[in-house]
Amino acid sequence: MKKHQSAALKILKDTLSFQTYKRSLAVSAACIGLGLGLSAHANAYHEDNSTPQTSDQAQMNTKPTLTTLTNYQENAPYMFSSGLPDASHLSLLKEKGVTHVVDLIPGDRTSEILTTSKLGLDYFNVPVDWEGPTLANFLNYAAFMQTVDIKEDKVLTHCKLNWRGAAFTYLYRINVLGENEQAAQKDLMAIWHPNPTWFAFMNEVIAHYNELNGKEVAMSFEAAAPENH
Predict the structure, then answer these.
(1) Counting Cβ atoms within 10 Å, is residue 142 exposed (0-12), middle (13-18) or buried (19+)?
(2) Which of 169, 170, 184, 192 keeps 20 to 30 A from 176, CA to CA?
């Protein structure tokens, strides 16, 4: 009887041990599965994050272009005009051969002076009051432009939106370079239509050069109607 009880107890213990072993295997398998799942999730998270990083990197490596330079124009082989350029625009313009920058914006221009200096560009400022441009402003501009070697150098004339710049390059082309007024006028009108204040200023400049050169240059358009506020 005792032998039978001992045998029964042994079988019971073996059975319990086997069940414990099975449970242990099941727990181990579950842990392994959980670990693999976490690992896969971690890898998926890393790959998801790597996509925008790659996109950001591509954006950082995108080379700036002159299409982002406000109202940029090439008015003559050595004359460009535009709105306010940043350092990247000036660097690109230097690559195109620009050697001189004429800035028509009044006020503190320290930042641009430093930028052009770093790039090795010649800087010249003609501070033009938007509400009161003068003949003296233009004569100052023209005097500088006539020091430029048109065979070797290129000039960017700029302001904030290229409204001043478009007017000054138009006037220089028809009064100093002797270009056809209607051809120069197309570039001007592509940027803006001068208001009565600027139209009167431009007429004054043209009258000055007509008297000086014995010519009869005239604008082929009228002033824009004043805005009603």
Answers:
(1) middle
(2) 192
Does residue 52 sit in the same domain as residue 76? Answer: no
When divided into structural domains, the chain yields a total of 2
| Residue 47 phi, psi dihedral angles, 5° rounding | -65, -40
Report the C-alpha gap between 89 and 94 in whole angstroms. 9
pLDDT digits (tens, 9 = 90+) for 202-213: 999 999 999 999
Q: Is 116 among the domain residues?
A: yes
Task: Tell me which residue of 153, 158, 151 sits closest to 96, measured CA to CA.
Answer: 153
Local structure of 217: helix, strand or coil:
coil
Mean pLDDT of the 74-101 span: 97
Matching residue, tokens 């003296």? 136
Tens digits of residue pLDDT in 57-75: 434 456 789 999 999 999 9
Which residues span the domain enclosing 154?
A: 66-213
Collapsing DSSP to helix, strand or coil, 77 comes out as coil
* 39: its two tokens: 């690992």
Give the number of other Cβ atoms within 10 Å of residue 175's Cβ: 23
Tokens, residue 72: 């940029």
**Which amino acid, 165?**
G
In whole angstroms, give the CA distance from residue 9 to residue 23: 21
* 133: its two tokens: 């441009």
pLDDT, residue 52, reads 36
How far is residue 39's CA from residue 45's CA, in Å, rounded to a whole number? 10
